[in-house]
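Posting this for the archive.
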Amino acid sequence: MNAQPMINFFDALKNCFRNYINFKGRIRRSEYWWFMLPINVVSALLIILLSLYASRVLGISYTSSSSGSYPYNPSPYNPDYPSPSYDPYPYIPSYTRVKYDKKSTRALIIIFVIHIGCIALPVISATVRRLHDVGKKGNYIFIGFVPFFGGLTLLILLCLDSHQNSNKFGPSPKYGNGDLDKNTELNPLTNEIITTTDNKIDTLLN
């Protein structure tokens, strides 16, 4: 069965944000990952920025003392012990607490909260429709919270190819309309992965 042309980046963003409260239907793999690409990049940058700023607030900024050539030996009985005009600890790092800036902290937190608020529903709805595209119910999104294998299993499901035929969630966005088959066969890779994990996931969710 011939596949439809891959959706482009801007159409994927437009479709996913436009359907941010639509939990029905299906979206193909390319549309989902084009949509998730800028969201993941922006989220990672914000997390890095917040982490760096938090390290400053918590006093983990690294400073070194003045330059010199004397090793660390504070004993006054050492004949080579430097006079007070020299730094006896030239290569020993020191840690200083940076002054807490409430305005900057508040601004960063507000930006992060706005970002999460803007992407939460679109990401959830797009993920649910992507799961529909591989024949799984939307509540499979919760397996991402299962420790160890949950996140990996969800990632594998989101990376699988579309059902070639229509399923109970609608026609295939990649391969077009096909005969509705409740027992739609998956491609070999999808079938192998789903077969080995389906029963365990259903047990966890039911």
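The chain has a mean pLDDT of 74. The first helix runs from residue 9 to 18.
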